[in-house]
Amino acid sequence: MTGLFSLSGCDTNSMDDRIILTFTFSADRSGDPIRFSFSSDDVQSGELRTISCNCLLDIGPFLSSRSFSKAELLEARVTSVRLKSFFPIGQQLDFLHEVELVLDENGTGAVTVAEDDTFPSSREIALSVFQGRSISALLVRPQFSVDLRIDPSNVTPDTQYELGIDMTIELELEGF
Question: Percent of the chain scored above 70 by pLDDT?
Fold first, then answer.
């Protein structure tokens, strides 16, 4: 698994020590970028359509590399999501009307963590994250999936599109 990480600090003023780590998912468990491909023929304006990246994510290897386990995870939240347009080359995101980012574990624990309905003429934007929404239950699972729900406002017929995300999470762990 690849991604970016940082050690954000340690709270030594509380009764129980807690460690805060951040991690950015930019690739799936196989090391492939998190990408969502779809055809303009599969979506229509006025309807949110779920697009899967057909990938699985797992925080376990990152925690293990920092000498932690999923059992020590106390809380986790998404802190930022960047949506990027990759194909067609040069495609701006202003073809979208609405986007939601949904994390799920086998179709049973879906959590919408970010959304937006304003898309400038840009190839990359930050989505609005639902502050304080816990994803701890998903992260302790062996793996989870990520989907985009999109409502396009204007797509070119017979065209393939590819979007990608980088998702940063904050992890609160039991200190030692």
Answer: 89
Separation between Cα atoms, residue 138 and residue 145, nearest integer Å: 9
Rounded distance between C-alpha atoms, residue 123 and residue 87, angstroms: 10
**CB hemisphere CA count around 120 (13 angstroms):** 5
Residue 4: predicted pLDDT: 45
Q: What angle do CA 151, 162, 45 make, to 5 degrees?
A: 20
The predicted structure's pLDDT at residue 88: 92
Cα separation, 15 vs 29, in Å, equals 36
Tokens (6 digits) for 122 = 């840009």
Counting every residue written for the chain, the total comes to: 176
Token output for 81: 């999501």
Say which DSSP state 50 is in: E
Tokens 């940082």, residue?
6
Per the structure block, which two tokens stand in for 26?
A: 């930019």
The phi and psi torsions of 70 (rounded to 5 degrees) equal -60, -25
How far is the CA of 162 from the CAs of 31, 133, 165, in angstroms?
18, 27, 11
Task: Give the Cα separation of 17 and 49 in Å (integer).
Answer: 43
Q: How confident is the model at residue 16 (pLDDT cuts 50, 70, 90)?
A: low
Could you tell me the pTM of the whole model? 0.86
